[in-house]
Known about the structure:
Blueprint: H1 24-43, H2 46-50, H3 55-62, H4 65-76, H5 82-87, H6 89-94, H7 97-107, H8 109-116, H9 122-136, H10 139-142, H11 151-160, H12 165-190, H13 192-203, H14 205-228
Helix pairs in contact: 1-7, 3-4, 4-12, 4-13, 7-8, 7-11, 7-12, 8-11
Amino acid sequence: MSEDGAAAPQREPAPLPWEGKAERTDIFLVAAIAISGIYKLALIPLTPTWVNSHPVWLEILKGSISGMVIMGAKARIGEASLLVAVLAAIPGLMMFNWIYWWAGRRWGKRALDFFLGNHPKAEVRTARLERLFHRFGWIAVVIAWFQPIPNALIYAAAGWTRMRLVTFVFLDLLGSLLWIAFCVGLGYAVGQSAVDVAKAVGRYALYVTIALIAVVFARQYYAASRKRG
Length: 229
């Protein structure tokens, strides 16, 4: 309802990224994208629980920043291998990236519209992404972890601009290694202090987990309320 009492205009639902009837590939991509989101949400409670006891699994399963930092810190004090700290994070960081590349390759610019939905800043973000690719090209994939635009949009744009899969995977790996080096290197520089913080978080893991779940549900409720408004 607007200030003058008139009914507020309803936003149109996000357009489907394909034309006509969905094919099997379209259904697979939508399902894979949905599963990737559910997977990441399901792993949120593991971070405070495993950050001290199993940081390497946080790296493997989700490419966790805290897991990388703690593994770097443990490598500094001799409790972990620096090589393992670097290599373990690669699967977690790159696990679903190819799906977004494929979505961009198949759906083109409509993939970006699908990911952004009816977000009020959708047009602004799309324009920013186009400027980023126009200015940096393939470098945009390499620096994806170091810039504010969601990575999924970067990867979809790579597919949209017809970047080959082999090229994309290579650039994605290079960018992931740079990000891993930054995070693990940060933990290595901090050393014992980071491990002490992780132990403290581990002691209060249950409370931190409950708080994280509450934040997730609060954000979802707020987003749903805004859409209804």
